[in-house]
UniProtKB/TrEMBL annotation:
The chain crosses the membrane at residues 193-216. PROSITE patterns: LTD. One of its GO terms (molecular function) is sodium ion transmembrane transporter activity. This is Na+-transporting methylmalonyl-CoA/oxaloacetate decarboxylase gamma subunit. Residues 25-155 form the LTD domain. GO terms for biological process: sodium ion export across plasma membrane. It comes from the Bacteria. It comes from Mangrovibacterium diazotrophicum. Residues 163-173 have a biased composition (Polar residues).
Length: 298
């Protein structure tokens, strides 16, 4: 029973871990990972749409590391009307890859496509991005004054909160193109001799081996052969027989049976062979007197 309980706990832990990982993945794929990333109000000679028009545009980034569908969400410049522009959710173009970007043109011409909004933007406009329920606010940004031609208002980092103006616009691209140290370079900086990496690798290996040992031991103990319990009736009979002494009749019968068994072991022969010892000192083999028949006296 103890092994069964341990095995149940083990399976329950595995299932719980799977549910936690799956829930985390589902949570990571929610629309709450979208953020406003770059806004260009005065577009004179900058990025053009598919119709060749220089329209104001709004860039949104998927900050998660999984694909997320922005379809079904709402964009608006009026907080009292959160469902002003509904983003269609039946297009593969609304599936935004991890850490990728989507561009919307604020030209008040929604008939041109799903990425053309039904409003325009100016200085002082506040943009809102709502979830598919039209109530949960995902992100908002107020466009500051002082907008210049072909100068965008950008988020410095997709995961940060700082904004700045730049004349180096980056539609559908990361705003920060400066060279950053790679993970390997950062690791070498903190561990130039690799001792930490060796220790971490050994700890990981030993931890995995310990987990495997524990799992195999629990499973093996569960499947080992278990002794069968004796029937309660037979056990009670045996205990009763041990506690009660034997009667005199039983002892006499046992003694008689043993006597008869030992006395009947002798074989009965039909012929009796008698050996007579020779009293002569010489060898009887050459004497002929023993070959003559003795005649009876009359």
């Amino acid at each position: 029973m103890i092994m069964q309980r341990k095995l149940k706990y083990l399976f329950a832990g595995i299932i719980l871990l799977t549910l936690v990982v799956s829930g985390k993945a589902l949570f990571a794929q929610s629309a709450s990972d979208f953020r406003f990333n770059e806004i260009l109000v005065n577009n004179e000679s900058n990025y053009t749409d598919e119709y060749g028009q220089h329209s104001s545009w709004i860039e949104i980034v998927n900050t998660s590391y999984s694909k997320v569908n922005i379809g079904g969400c709402f964009l608006t410049d009026d907080q009292s009307n959160p469902t002003k522009y509904w983003i269609p959710n039946d297009s593969p173009e609304t599936q935004i890859a991890p850490r990728e970007f989507v561009l919307f043109f604020a030209d008040n011409k929604p008939s041109r496509g799903i990425f053309h909004l039904n409003f325009t933007i100016t200085e002082g406009t506040t943009l809102y991005l709502y979830d598919a329920n039209g109530k949960s606010l995902i992100d908002e940004i107020k466009i500051p004054a002082g907008q210049k031609a072909d100068v965008s208002y950008t988020r410095v980092s997709p995961d940060g909160t700082d904004w700045s103006f730049t004349d180096h616009t980056t539609p559908r691209s990361n705003n920060d193109h400066t060279r950053k140290a790679s993970s390997g370079e950062k690791f070498v900086k903190h561990d130039p001799y690799g001792a930490g990496m060796v220790v971490i690798a050994m700890l990981v290996v030993f931890l995995v081996l310990a987990i495997l040992f524990a799992v195999y031991r629990i499973v093996g103990s569960f499947f080992q052969a278990k002794p069968k319990a004796k029937p309660q009736g037979a056990e009670a009979t045996a205990k009763t027989a041990e506690t009660q002494p034997l009667s005199g009749e039983i002892n006499a019968a046992i003694a008689m049976a043993l006597y008869l068994y030992q006395s009947e072991q002798h074989d009965y022969e039909n012929t009796v062979l008698t050996i007579k010892k020779v009293s002569k000192a010489y060898s009887p083999w050459s004497s002929k007197i023993y070959t003559l028949r003795k005649n009876p006296r009359i």
